[in-house]
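Protocol step 4 of 6.
Sequence for DUF7344 domain-containing protein (Natronosalvus rutilus) entered exactly as in the expression construct, tag removed. Do not edit the line below.
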Amino acid sequence: MTFRVPTKTANSSGRGTTAATHPGAGNRDTLARTEVTRVLSSDRRRTLLEHLLDAGTALDVHTLIGWLADDEHEPTVETSIHQLRQRVHVSLRRTHLPLLEEYGLLVYNQTEELVVPTWRLDLYESVLESDEQS
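Step 5 output, C-alpha cells:
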C-alpha cells in the first residue's frame, strides 16, 4: 500500500533537493507503507519530524535536543533533564538523524550541527496529522 500525496517541488516548498538514497524511499509523490512504518516506528522520530515541520526551516541540533528532552521529561522519573538530554543527543546522532537522512527527509550537517528539512518531509505531514486524529 502506498500513500498518494500532492507533488511538491523544491522551489515551491522552499526546502533542499536532496534525493532519497534508500531503496524504500519511494518516488516524488508516494510513500511506501514500509518506509512510513520504518520512519514512524519511533516516538522520538515522530516528535522530531513534527518539530521540523512546525519550524519549516533549518534547526540547530541542540535546539532539537532541548525540545525532545522537554517533551519526554517526566518529573517523577529519577533521570535528570541533563541525563535525558545526553541520551537524546546520542540517539539523534547515532540512530535517528542518519536514518531520516538516509530516507531523504533531512540533511544533517554534523560540522555546523544543523538539521535541514528537505521537500520529502512534506510528504509525511498528512500521515502525522492523521495519526494524531486517530
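Step 6, annotate. The beta strands are 2-4, 30-32, 59-60, 106-109, 114-117.
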